[in-house]
Design brief:
The protein is an alpha/beta fold and 136 residues long. The protein folds into 2 domains: 33 residues; 85 residues, Nucleotidyltransferase, domain 5, CATH 3.30.420. It contains 4 helices and 7 strands; from the N terminus they run ααββββαβαββ. The longest helix has 17 residues.
Length: 136
């Protein structure tokens, strides 16, 4: 046997098979995609009122914005009051443990705020909060 071919054969035998490592990487990628929570934004910017007792909410996946002109925005869409409960129920079905954060503009009407809160409660959501700006 030629010494050169023996060294070549030993080098071929000691190569690393990367297939199992690639399998693990793809499985981890799928795991992170499946477990990631995606936040749906309300769709408009609002001027939130200030509050001294503001508390940061960690788990919130349903954002509802109230504009000063009386529009209700969910997931970048203007939602009429008649479809509010159905829209919230659909979002709750997508994420059963999600909380509702209402981003009411400081010039919006309290009547609308109550309508949104009632619709969220009717949809079965108990964790409802109103977004504010923390005072400094």
């Amino acid at each position: 046997m030629d010494p050169l071919s023996a060294a070549q054969q030993a080098e071929d035998d000691s190569s690393i098979d990367l297939t199992p490592m690639l399998d693990v990487v793809f499985i981890m990628l799928i795991f992170f995609i499946v477990t990631a929570s995606f936040i749906k934004e309300a769709g408009i910017d609002v001027s939130r009122p200030q509050a001294e007792t503001a508390v940061k909410q960690d788990k919130a996946n349903i954002f509802i914005a109230l504009s000063p002109s009386g529009e209700i925005w969910i997931d970048r869409k203007n939602v009429p009051t008649s479809q509010l409960k159905a829209t919230i129920e659909k979002l709750k079905a997508e994420n059963p443990q999600g909380a509702v954060i209402i981003q009411a503009d400081r010039d919006s009407k309290s009547k609308q705020l109550m309508q949104v809160m009632d619709a969220a409660r009717d949809a079965g959501i108990t964790q409802i909060a109103v977004a504010t700006e923390a005072q400094e």
